[in-house]
Design a protein that fits this description.
With 211 residues, the protein is of the alpha+beta class. The chain contains four helices and twelve strands; from the N terminus they run E-E-H-E-E-H-E-E-E-E-E-H-E-E-E-H. Helix content is 33%, strand content 30%. The longest helix is centred in the first third of the chain and has 25 residues. The protein starts with a strand and ends with a helix.
């Protein structure tokens, strides 16, 4: 395994390039914007008041403002997904190339390794896992299911440098940094790549890695 800064990454011809799905971000922006604009227009028209229920304009304006805020965030993510830094994993004829800095943090300086180049001969096994994790939503912890692609490396393949670099990414203090870390390692020869909103499906990458 070799770590590279993005600017020093050797040229490669990928058989498969996996990245955040741009269509998902665009759809989220459209849905939030339409919902927000609809709520504000509904409120401007006076809301709804019937014999059985009522929706006052103040509630609609408040809801619309939140929807437009979510649309702003989704639009920012959609713009980031259009950049060339939006890729997570590339599979070539002889290597698996993992970019462990999130595309949302592409504005951070290229001051150290961001990419792990793993020759296929160093991978003992590749598999897909679906796990249940706890995530705080609205002040409460909820269980969510996440999918990850796991690379089990052969004995003798050192991951210490990768583990240290991942820790540095998490500990980095920047003026603006999104807490999005798509790659993890347990320091014992296992690299996990979270597949949240990534296209194509992990089974496609898995098929190439096993062939």
């Amino acid at each position: 395994m070799t770590l590279y800064p993005l600017s020093q990454l050797p040229p490669f011809r990928s058989r498969l390039l996996c990245r955040q799905c741009r269509a998902h971000h665009a759809a989220a922006f459209g849905a939030f914007f339409a919902a927000g604009a609809g709520c504000i227009l509904w409120g401007w028209m006076g809301g709804t008041r019937t014999e059985f229920w009522s929706v006052p304009p103040a509630i609609l304006f408040w809801s619309g403002a939140w929807m437009l805020l979510f649309a702003l965030i989704a639009g920012w993510m959609a713009r980031r997904s259009l950049r060339t830094a939006n890729w997570l994993l590339a599979v070539t004829a002889d290597a698996c190339i993992v970019k462990f800095r999130s595309y949302l943090n592409c504005h951070l300086p290229d001051d150290g390794p961001q990419v792990a180049w793993i020759p296929l001969r160093e991978i003992r096994e590749a598999r897909m896992e679906t796990v249940t994790v706890m995530k705080r939503l609205g002040g409460e912890e909820s269980e969510i299911r996440r999918t990850r692609l796991v690379l089990e490396l052969k004995d003798g393949v050192a991951v210490d440098a990768l583990a240290e670099r991942l820790k540095q990414e998490c500990d980095r203090q920047a003026n603006f940094q999104v807490r999005d870390y798509p790659v993890e390692t347990d320091g014992a020869g296992r690299v996990a790549i979270w597949w949240d909103g990534v296209t194509p499906a992990p089974a496609v990458a898995l098929r190439l890695l096993k062939n």
